Fold this sequence. Notes:
Layout: H1 16-22, H2 25-28, H3 32-48, H4 54-73, H5 85-97, H6 110-146, E1 151-156, E2 159-165, H7 166-190, E3 193-194, H8 210-216, E4 221-222, H9 226-231, H10 234-260, E5 268-269, H11 288-311, H12 325-349, E6 351-352, H13 354-363, H14 368-377, H15 382-399, H16 408-414, H17 422-425, H18 428-434, H19 443-458
Parallel strand pairs: 3-4
Antiparallel strand pairs: 1-2, 5-6
Helix pairs in contact: 3-4, 3-6, 3-8, 4-5, 6-7, 6-12, 6-19, 7-10, 7-19, 10-11, 10-12, 11-12, 14-15
Amino acid sequence: MKGKMWAGRTDGITDRLADDFNSSIAFDARLYRQDITGSMAHAAMLGEKGILTPSEADRIIAGLSAILSDLESGALAVDPAAEDIHMFVEGELTARLGDLGKKLHTARSRNDQVALDLRLYLRDEIAALIDAVRSLIGALTGQAEKNRDAILPGYTHLQRAQPILFSHHLLAYAMMLMRDVGRLRDTAARMDVCPIGCCALAGTTYDIDRRFEAEKLGFSAVAPNSLDGVSDRDFGVEFLAAASILMMHLSRLSEELVLWTSWEFKFVELSDAYTTGSSIMPQKKNPDMAELIRGKTGRVYGDLMALLTTLKGLPLAYNKDMQEDKESIFDAVDTLKSCLSVMTPMIATMRVLRENMLAAAQKGFINATDLADYLVKKGMPFRSAYKVAGELVAHCIASGEVLETLPLAVYREKSELFADDLYEAISLKTCVEKRSSEGGTSPASVEAQIAAVKEFLKA
């Protein structure tokens, strides 16, 4: 194979299989924009410090700008035979500028260069992901507003428990996603440290200005320890952890959609645009997009575990193992973006079957707690009221009735505390309205939650 730019200590000629095994160009080519942007800032710094003449720095920056333009337009393609994106850009620059191109790598290493590129890449992608999550929050909030007063059973253990507003249920996911935005922002804030100038591991003998370069690239600080600067991938792990939690939330929402769209629930109907059919069963309308989101959660978890496992035994500073960081991060970014791009319109276009929700709520005795509370408020100890309510539920099950239709005479056989005001007290509408504690499911509380989410989205 052709000799490499790093030839010297060795002849730079590697076995073809070893060359392919060592190469990262197949996946790190996507960093071309960040790599060139970082190189332009580096050339500017070298010119500012007199390590390059102003003319040399200008010519290198112009050459890099031309390479970027050609890559963006398609006039230039990344050479798959290059070892990595750094070597490709430097090689192309040298082909265009001759020996001047070889001066670009002064006072830096691929170790600090790749650490910089990955931070720049994630900074851009985190910003895009935050926008996508905010769009999903907006879709959930929009559905909550349209279905403010729809009542459905709230569940524990997947058993009907208490009546809640559907809007309240959707807003629970909005709250989860708001925390996800916070985690992504925290990751970006801790990642806002520039490693360039750490070089291979020990810094450099050249009189460089790391802060000039960091500011030019939009960083607020420089890595204070050169060993840490090149070996730190905490930001990658932290991003993957935040991505895993976000995917877990998307998976839980997907599971609800799978349940809600089944004939057993039939609480919502998804648009045909986000469902598929069966090859042999013509009646089927499958929630495949929700199922795929649920399934893809596992691969993002795997990305997190892969990077954690890669890093767990590495001594300082850079090791070739760290080349494995990028594919996990790229995969998680791509997976998240695709899942969010489907989930948001799927939520925005789903049809809410309010009558089915209400019917399920009426049949589940989910006002039994309110029945017990009715007695407690009239002076009966809670445990005694709990027993009476349970006996009345058992009677309804045996007789095929519901609490709202059970005659008052039957109630009074259990306790003379029951009176005509009972039926109003245990109506599902009343049950929801009475849960007016902050954060509860009452209409007033839900309105406050909607307002809080909207305020968050404005910020």
